[in-house]
Specification:
It is a single chain. It is built from nine helices and eight strands. The protein is of the alpha/beta class. α4 packs across α5 (91-104). 43% of the residues are buried.
């Protein structure tokens, strides 16, 4: 797997469309992360706190995004090691992140994960509860810089109409960033306004 070659192809499209790449490095070795860093990647995504801690040294000098489901009791570790958290989906978690930020004297870039289709297997706030959660974070969590929404569509469906709806909600809240799109559908996500895409397989190969 030629990571640099894969990145070159992907980055050309992203640069053309003004979108930022998060290289999803979960379950990939540090050697692959180092190779991606040498090729110019400055944003990486991880989904498991244990991996974040184990590989923390290799992420020196880059931005680390936590993109997986986050338990409240792991929030402090996420704040300590990451610059962004994409999976804020409940008030309790937001409060715990805020407390960790205060304790560590740190600000964090935050995204609210939304679950449009109410999938039980995925995290995310239901659209009906989105306004309440966003307002809570903006009013009670000053150390969370709320940047936008994050979305993961169901497998096996056309993501285009779902991405359109997430983009509409993102614009409705006047957010500047939008985190959606993965290896198989990032072009569709960018077409609908994504500013961050989370790409793993197309860069690092199968885990």
């Amino acid at each position: 797997m030629n990571i640099a070659q894969n990145l070159n192809t992907t980055k050309k499209f992203l640069i053309k469309n003004g979108c930022k790449l998060i290289a999803v490095s979960k379950k990939h070795p540090e050697s692959s992360i180092q190779e991606a860093k040498k090729a110019g990647v400055c944003h990486f995504g991880e989904s498991y706190i244990q991996e974040v801690i184990q590989k923390s040294a290799v992420f020196t000098g880059v931005n680390l995004h936590f993109i997986g489901h986050l338990q409240s009791n792991k929030a402090k570790d996420a704040v300590q090691h990451c610059q962004y958290i994409h999976s804020i989906d409940r008030m309790k978690l937001a409060t715990t992140i805020e407390k960790a930020c205060v304790k560590l004297n740190k600000r964090i870039g935050g995204f609210v994960q939304i679950n449009l289709t109410n999938e039980a297997s995925k995290g995310g706030v239901h659209p009906d509860d989105l306004e309440e959660l966003v307002t809570y974070i903006q009013q009670h969590c000053p150390h969370i810089d709320l940047l936008g929404l994050m979305y993961i569509p169901p497998k096996g469906v056309n993501p285009d109409p779902l991405y359109k709806e997430v983009a509409r909600l993102n614009q409705q809240h006047q957010f500047k960033e939008l985190s959606m799109g993965m290896s198989g559908d990032y072009e569709t996500a960018i077409k609908n306004g994504a500013t961050y895409v989370r790409i793993g397989t197309a860069i690092f190969g199968q885990r």
